[in-house]
């Protein structure tokens, strides 16, 4: 379908401008007020039926949310930077998820596309060698940078919205464009899934710019090997005491946390696949001569499949409690993020490849790449698959200036229109 | 009172014979069937009112008892070696405690003397340099030896029984002679105390041959510095699994026990005095390639006073459970022994010293020696003191051939009649 | 080649008798004096060139050898039970490996077959349901039983020796029959490999009765998934002290060992494949009130490939030393066994399958089974492959009465002649 | 000697003004530039021979010094607040110790008085109930407050300087007034002692306002029970790695530090007296999904005597290194402070009591109070005692508004002139 490919290419100048605007105003997880506001207004203008805020984000399932005070500050900033105050207010509490629906009115399938919106906690490089700096679209927010390409993802989503409208006649059923907050730290997907946004979806497509696909003109139709993961925070509360005068009156939170770190590392290996455990951060104590009464730690588990990760989490939870019991202190464990593993759908991967080879201009189409990491798009995929639908996670090939999450990260903006064209083709095919 | 001192000296030959008979037939804690049988018959013959078996040993408070099977084997051996079968049967289950009462029928105080009967798990030296070997009264029991002088203590008790009868006119009130099983491992005293055998006692006297008093003609009227102690056994039960094929199916008792040993050692020091913790023995696992499902450990705590020891025990119990929880295994904790600390009664120490200087032939009388160890006579002392009575723990000076619990241990038998005479003087004085 | 299959079947009665004789006289690793003596004499009688003792077992590479005293006792027992005293003497020190060579005098390849000889530390079931008991060929040695079928393996080897002689005309080059001690605990192969016994070998074939192939009339031509493994013993030596009176004078070997067990379990997971660590046995300390001065532990590591296992061993060795340093004690680490991983030779597996389908009477021939365990035949295979040869590890299908290493283990003796025929066919084919 | 007592009382108004000026300008350890400058100029004006800077502070023995950058900032602040720029420059690097010598020219003893100058890292209470706030002499420095009375100590020292000059005729030998930096954290005494400032001293007197003596009109002539202490910082450096993708490439500094904290807590109790160990602060790691490459901890040990503390330090140092070795990371251990224990000089305590009762107006004079903490004045005392001199640490009774180191701390300024008079009496007596 040469037309869509060409239509997309024609959008290039405005897509680049949009991506650079987003790059200049990056927003971290659960604070994408400006980004979401912009998406809502743009899709509304195109005639999409819009859902956002509490309607598409289940509060009980939001993980790793910033404090109320922080959220309020970010809302103000978004408004200052051009967000619609009415919309921002409706997304209060960080409910920045957005779903736009295009209903063709014709029978057909429901096809969903998922895009993530948040940036990283990274201070962007300002030196000459960094194109965003050289060309003047660097982040204007301290310690915030689109270093994982989600600015590109949002732009692809907006491009798809336009292309779909231009090709209404070729579509059937309903198309859902899902914009998710807080992918970094795998915190945001569950809340949208638990709000039911993909419960009616027959085909769900997610994807990522670059990553293990850093050649232009390349498309990976399906990745596999997502590790299931859970992110947990633990806080230990004991009783302080003078370490010289009355040590026995203390309840030592530092020793409890240190022991927890050691014990967690002893969780048994699993014969059914990969497992991981990491205590990445541990802070404890207030002063040299005081029996420490507080300690906190950041933990993550992973598993080659969801069951193994659940085994790790179950072991970890019991051990955290037992380590606290050892020193008679309290421990609070909170979920800070998570994602299941994915199931590789070989048939779909090959079907997409066949379609793409026919309709799109990629020089290379691969049907498999091993991810070796975690992504909470798997929550959407898992829900869709469990309800009888199909799902794929693609990679859109592009050269990158530096690794993801690196302060020098940048990508070739050509990838935007190509990915948008590809997704539009999928909408045509799978909505039928 | 020159008479008692002389009377006692006259008993020397028969006392030495008795001590050597006991030395030849040593019996470990809770298996003193022959020793007790002999005591009962001898005191009965002198006219004492006898109590023994379940009457003076509270089963629920017996600590560190051998298995039923072992006890039965020891009962048979005792009978083979001359014990009275009827008496042995009444002491079934290891209830080998004996109390003999001499009631003068006159008003007065109740004065009790406590003697311990058990031997050590030591293989006695058989070489020439060892007097019991040279003179033919070595232990005839494998891995059992009176290496702590309790054969001497029992003989002193029997001598006191005779001397009291010879001096009935000088006595008042009631005199109780208490023979306790299982002092080694501090296991036996509590069961007799809990049976109430000293609840009516006004004055309680215990003591030991040698120890920190290894000069002949010396008496220490009061020791102090007994550390309170608790002996515990812990058994961990997990689930075994093939360490290569399915390690995640195991529940690792070895790691739980190892962690418990480490954690116990981290119990806080105590600002109010000495504390101790020791895991002396740890055995775990069945084979190199099996996730271990069993582990056992022998633990002891000590404290400069009873409260500190209780702090240690409380911490240890919680930690043992928490260490088991860490690895999702079960732990059974059993009490294997214990003794409280003692309270030094300076007034009584000096009063005894004055009496002894007047009546007995000691060259040296000391009113204080620091013990620096544990002895469950403190259970008797503690009960008596708490009910308003008074108590002393003495040391009877004697040269020794080697340290207590050593396979070369032996003592100068002169100490027997001297100690017996001294205790008889105390009976006269304190029963009034 | 119907002839060999038939020839082998004709040997059945004598093979069963031989296997039952071996079953009655099981010998554990490094003590196979009777077994080896019997093999030597039997092969010598057939005209094989025999090598055994120090010639084929490199002393420096013997792992997990019993003590000199134990070995001497086993030598005596073997002689009592019919072993040739002269041969036994030549195998002193446990050098019970045997190599028999059949040189055809014709040009050709060198083909080797490897059989293991040792039994397990298992007390054999004596009840009626157990065929060896019912039919009178139970082990006559306490705590020793052929519970892994090595009696069958040796019998297969002896049958192959006969069949080769009967088919000399069909053979070329040289055939080596290798009988290895101490496979249990993966202790014996390295010493024979380091003695150079397979340095001239072009094709090496090993195999096992049953295991993951418990159907009769089935042959697995190649197994894979052997985990590389290392078995280590660690002994900690500290300084004892009275736990109450002078704990600071002790150097605590129990805490060092306990910490080592915990720390070993924290070795990082490996991203390149499976890893395992197990402390299967830990024994420490002498008495409850003594700071423990001794501790010992049995450890094993495994890896999905040899490099991962080496990573585990390197980490473990450093951690054992550091754990000793923590408590200022000494640690001695000794190698108790080990085996590398294997490389799957798909081409050979399929070639054997083709041959076997043509020549032998198996109903089922599989070219792949995952082992999921360790076997030190991999040392032979690894050496041969590294020197340019080829190697296969087969499984000979047979129903079994209970799992390997179980006291109820038994197998269908039909498997013996079938396996012998198969190996003889391989000799014919690969010696050409 | 009524005269000195009266002379001192007459100084009251100027002493209060001076103390309040110091209280308004508190300086933390090694940054007492203004305080020292003021002392130097005041004593110089009185005719004292002044020594300060590198002359009286041995650089190699300065513990827990701030960074060069911080020191420079504090030097600037001091000058801004009136310090003499020339003097401040001579104390660069934090060498803020001062010694003033009064040489009578007459034969006699050398008597030294030691005063500490630094403030605490405490934000002073600004509310009405706090007298310094109500009366306008609160700290003007953020997070810095004289919450331990060292402003009082310096004022006492300045008062003594005046009183000595007024009573030159009554004095003999030489009098040394020592002003020490960095007592908080026990960091500063060693550097002055190692510079030799008390090597010629016959009598050394230190002391403290309040503490365990909070009644006015009370003097404690000698405290005991200082615990020897050592403060150490440990920094662990490992290698970071992605916790999901390549955990085996990391060298985990967090686990090393956690293990160190646990292991340190297992250092054996000591039979010869009190011991303490505390890891008061532990910070490790950079992010949840990164194997942590950095960790730092603040440690302190204590001992009932210097030998026990040295035992603790030796054990701790070995364990820190071994814990680092466990995880193959590096550890740097730096000394952050320390003090030996003290020896109680009963004779001197009683002699001072007798003098004071005769000459001074105290209602109560005690010869003993147990300190139960640490103070680096013990470095001075220890050096003087080891060289044959005598030393005492006194407490000057005063009501206090809140505990030492509390943000509400304040004391009754009456104590200043009384303590100054008392010390002057000691100078008269002991210089003879």
TrEMBL record, chains A, B, C, D:
Any one GO MF annotation of this record: para-aminobenzoyl-glutamate hydrolase activity
Keywords: Manganese, Metal-binding
Organism per entry: Succiniclasticum ruminis DSM 9236
Pfam families, A to Z: M20_dimer, Peptidase_M20
Cofactors, names only: Mn(2+)
Protein name (record): Aminobenzoyl-glutamate utilization protein A
Free-text cofactor note: The Mn(2+) ion enhances activity.
GO biological process per UniProt: folic acid catabolic process
Cellular component GO terms held in the UniProt record: cytoplasm
Entry binding sites for Mn(2+): 148, 150, 184, 208, 405
NCBIfam families tied to this protein: amidohydrolases
Residue stretches making up the Peptidase M20 dimerisation domain: 232-324
Top-level taxon of origin: Bacteria
């Amino acid at each position: 379908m040469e037309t869509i490919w060409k239509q997309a290419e024609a959008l290039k100048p405005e897509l680049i401008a949009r991506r650079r605007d987003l790059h200049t105003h990056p927003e971290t997880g659960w604070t994408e007020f400006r980004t979401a506001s912009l998406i809502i207004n743009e899709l509304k203008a195109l005639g999409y039926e819009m859902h956002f805020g509490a309607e598409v984000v289940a509060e009980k399932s939001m993980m790793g949310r910033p404090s109320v005070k922080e959220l309020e500050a970010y809302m103000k900033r978004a408004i200052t930077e051009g967000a619609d105050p009415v919309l921002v207010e409706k997304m209060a509490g960080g409910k920045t998820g957005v779903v736009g629906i295009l209903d063709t009115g014709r029978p057909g399938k429901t096809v969903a596309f998922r895009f993530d919106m948040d940036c990283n906690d990274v201070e962007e490089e300002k030196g000459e060698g960094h194109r965003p700096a050289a060309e003047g679209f660097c982040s204007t927010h301290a310690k915030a940078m689109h270093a994982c390409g989600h600015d590109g993802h949002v732009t692809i989503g907006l491009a798809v919205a336009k292309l779909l409208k231009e090709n209404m006649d070729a579509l059937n059923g309903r198309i859902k464009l899902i914009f998710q907050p807080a992918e970094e730290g795998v915190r945001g997907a569950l809340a949208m899934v638990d709000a039911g946004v993909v419960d009616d979806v027959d085909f769900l497509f997610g994807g990522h710019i670059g990553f293990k696909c850093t050649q232009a003109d390349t498309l990976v139709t399906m990745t596999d090997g997502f590790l299931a993961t859970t992110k947990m925070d633990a806080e230990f509360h004991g009783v302080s005491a003078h370490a010289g005068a009355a040590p026995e009156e203390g309840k030592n939170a530092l020793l409890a946390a240190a022991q927890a770190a050691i014990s967690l590392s002893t969780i048994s290996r699993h014969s059914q696949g990969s497992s991981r455990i990491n205590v990445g951060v541990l802070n404890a104590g207030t002063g040299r001569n005081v029996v420490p009464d507080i300690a906190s730690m950041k933990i993550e588990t992973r598993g080659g499949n969801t069951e193994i990760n659940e085994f790790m989490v179950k072991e970890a939870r019991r051990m955290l409690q037992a380590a606290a019991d050892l020193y008679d202190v309290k421990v609070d464990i909170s979920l800070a993020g998570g994602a299941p593993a994915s199931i590789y759908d070989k048939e779909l991967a090959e079907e997409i490849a066949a379609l793409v080879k026919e309709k799109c201009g990629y020089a290379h189409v691969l049907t498999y790449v091993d991810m070796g990491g975690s992504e909470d798009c798997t929550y959407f995929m898992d829900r869709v698959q469990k309800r009888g639908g199909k799902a794929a996670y693609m990679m859109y090939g592009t050269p990158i200036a530096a690794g993801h999450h690196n302060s020098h990260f940048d990508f070739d903006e050509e990838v935007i229109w190509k990915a948008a064209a590809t997704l539009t083709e999928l909408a045509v095919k799978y909505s039928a």
